[in-house]
Each structure stands twice: as structure tokens, then as C-alpha cells.
Amino acid sequence: DIHVTQSPSSLSASVGDRVTITCRASQSISSFLNWYQQKPGKAPELLIYAASSLQSGVSSRFSGSGSGTDFTLTISSLEPEDFATYYCQQSFSIPYTFGQGTKLEI
Amino acid sequence: QVQLVQSGAEVRKPGASVKVSCKASGYTFTGYYMHWVRQAPGQGLEWMGWINPNSGGTNYAQRFQGRVTMTRDTSITTGYMELSGLRSDDTAVYYCARSTATIMPPGETLRRFDLWGRGTLVTVSS
């Protein structure tokens, strides 16, 4: 199985900050990497797919980059509604696996 | 509207089985794979497998092989996930999710989970 590791596990930031979350895969996954946001008690929502493609309807303050084994999710200027948990997920091979999550707190 | 509506919360005893449903609406049910993902309390996300609603073909994560069965009824655009031999560590919220496929060079398919149900809490307790 491909192991996916996120860092940091938690992050404190303020409205207006620029934040970056990283995701590392245990082997090369090309650009087969998706990012999700999850708020408490809610289902995850897709933000970024194929490492850098913005899902329709998602704010352009979210961006993704990377390929191979190292990936980043960047939020350019935090809004209050961005405080949530973020997960990366590899879609390169089955079983699809998720990172352990990064909790973004105020 | 485009949505996935899941069945309600369930409580089961260890060793029992549970079957969760996921009704799709607002899109062509047979045009997208349906996946099941679970999340234990306070934990991360775990992919369990997918079903191709068009063919009925399935692909399960190895750790659930032999315990999970995914089926569908195209006449009512509903997918099902049945988990047997329940243990206390199967207590989790179970989500269904639709995947949309993107063809990546040189021809492989990337699947992204672009529509999720609201989740079904399954509690396993004696």
C-alpha cells in the first residue's frame, strides 16, 4: 500500500495568513493526488484534484502543487470558514489512501 | 439536485452485519463509480472499496476482503455496503462518495471523490 504522510498534524494561524500543508507519498504517484476539506460533523469536500486542478466552485485562494512524492496545499489568505481539517489522498493505486489529516485552528 | 442520501444510524452487536444504503439523484447513476469511505471517531479517512454501478463490478481494499459486499440496484439508483463480522473497531461513520474520472497522461485514470453522502454512523457495541 502507498503510505501518505501529511505535515504538520495541526497548525494555528490567523485570518489573512498564508498557510501551506505538505503531503508526502511513500513512492512516486505522479500527479495522482487530491485534497479535501472536512469540517466537524460534515462530509469531506473536494478542493484540488490531480495535484493542482481546482475543483469547480472552490475558491481560488486554494492552490495545489507537486508531483512524484511531494505535494503542497496552499491557502493564500485565510478566511474564517477555512478553519477545518485537510486531507490529501492518493489515487494512483488501490487501496486509495488518505493522509492522517491536518487540523487548521485559529 | 445532485446528491447522495444515506440511510440512518445503526447499532449492532459484535459479530452481526450491517447494510448501509446510498441513494443517488440528479445525475446518471450508472455513469460514475460509487465508493465507500469510513471514519472512526476522531480519526482519519479510510477507503473501503468501489462499485461500478453500470456493471456491478467491485474492487475492495484487501483488509476488508471477505467481510464487505458492495451492491447496487439501478432501478432505484441506490448503492449498498454490507459489512459482516462486526467488531467494536468497526464503529465509524460510513460515507458513500461518487468518483469522477480524469484521464492522466499516458492514459491512466485518476479518480476524485467529488460528491459525498452525509454519512451513516454505525455503532458496534454489546
Q: Could you spell the SSE succession of chain A in H and E letters?
A: EEEEEEEEEEE
- In terms of structural class, how would the helical and strand content of chain A be classed? mainly beta
Integer average pLDDT of chain A: 97
Q: Could you report the average pLDDT of chain B, rounded to the nearest whole number?
A: 96
Question: What is the global morphology of chain B?
Answer: globular
Question: What structural keywords apply?
Answer:
heterodimer, A: 106 residues, mainly beta, seven-stranded mixed sheet, four-stranded antiparallel sheet, 11 strands, B: 126 residues
Gist?
The complex is a heterodimer of chains A (106) and B (126). By secondary structure, chain A is mainly beta.
Secondary-structure blueprint:
The complex is a heterodimer of chains A (about 110) and B (about 130).
Chain A: E1 4-7, E2 10-12, E3 19-25, E4 33-38, E5 45-49, E6 53-54, E7 62-67, E8 70-75, E9 85-90, E10 97-98, E11 102-105
Parallel strand pairs in A: 2-11
Antiparallel strand pairs in A: 1-3, 3-8, 4-5, 4-9, 5-6, 7-8, 9-10, 9-11
Chain B: E1 3-6, E2 10-12, E3 18-25, E4 33-39, E5 45-51, E6 58-60, E7 68-73, E8 78-83, E9 92-104, E10 108-116, E11 120-124
Parallel strand pairs in B: 2-11
Antiparallel strand pairs in B: 1-3, 3-8, 4-5, 4-9, 5-6, 7-8, 9-10, 9-11
